[in-house]
Automatic annotation (TrEMBL):
It comes from the Bacteria. This is Intracellular protease, PfpI family. Residues 7-169 form the DJ-1/PfpI domain. SUPFAM superfamilies: Class I glutamine amidotransferase-like (SSF52317). Keywords: Hydrolase, Protease. InterPro entries: C56_PfpI-like, Class_I_gatase-like, DJ-1/PfpI. GO terms for molecular function: peptidase activity. Pfam families: DJ-1_PfpI. Belongs to the peptidase C56 family.
Amino acid sequence: MMRLAGKKIIQLVSNDFEDLELWYPVHRLREEGATVDIVGEKAGEKYIGKYGVPIVSDKTFDEINPADYDAILVPGGWSPDLLRRFDSVLTMVRHFNETKQPIGQICHAGWVLISAGVLKGINVTSTPGIKDDMTNAGATWHDEPVVVDGHIISSRRPPDLPDYMREFIRVLEGSK
């Protein structure tokens, strides 16, 4: 049974993403029947993960309409520091926050949500390295494999990926 047939997800990408934190969610969501578009600064661009695993983007930040999608995923690694510099990325994250549609963040991905200004009063987790950044943005940080606060699903690091995707899929199944 394809639990996510008909669902469309944005997977943001830029260089130096954490390889597993990008690829594992893409594969899991596609296994469940979802369409996952890889969205970067340029379309057809090869982006390289921290450990050398490449991925090619399908679309650009500016050419997609977030209203055409059901959820967004922000990868970890060092790419969130690059992604948060694009107004179009912050606008996308704000769209999903305002519409209460699933936003997945893992590891350093919280940096993008911080820059989008959507974490005040939210329960989250992340890599412990950005705990202070998350709390300074108004979030309540928890050292747990996955934290779900409404439509925001957060996780710490690669070993937590099974918990992260189980909860992300559960929230996505229940979304409009």
